[in-house]
Design a protein that fits this description.
- The protein has 90 residues and is mostly helical.
- The chain contains two helices and two strands.
- A two-stranded antiparallel ribbon has the order 1-2.
- A hairpin with a 4-residue loop joins strand 1 and strand 2.
- It is extended, with a radius of gyration of 16 Å.
- The model has no long low-confidence stretch (mean pLDDT 82).
Length: 90
């Protein structure tokens, strides 16, 4: 999970500890995590978003736990795609 400069800002201290306890009941407390990506230009969390730093947290989590075999590769190696036009979405 990721947090942002919104209602999720405290996820590491309010939410994650409780989730770890639940996961611990199944012996999997290390299978849940949270991170708050920090803006390099302002040294603060991003506002509510699903930007590349937030997606990279998810990519790396899935890579680790679903064993995609991309260990050591940065999620930023994923090439961005052009957005579909309105006609392409129909």
């Amino acid at each position: 999970m990721t947090g942002a400069k919104d209602w999720t800002i405290d996820i590491e201290t309010k939410g994650l500890p409780e989730l770890r306890k639940i996961y611990a009941m199944y012996g999997a407390e290390n299978n849940v995590m949270a991170k708050i990506p920090i803006r390099a230009d302002k040294d603060e969390p991003f506002p509510h978003n699903y930007n590349q730093p937030s997606r990279e947290v998810m990519y790396n989590f899935f890579n680790q736990h679903l064993k995609f075999g991309l260990l050591g590769r940065s999620a930023s190696a994923v090439q961005p795609r052009a957005a579909e036009g309105a006609v392409g979405l129909r």
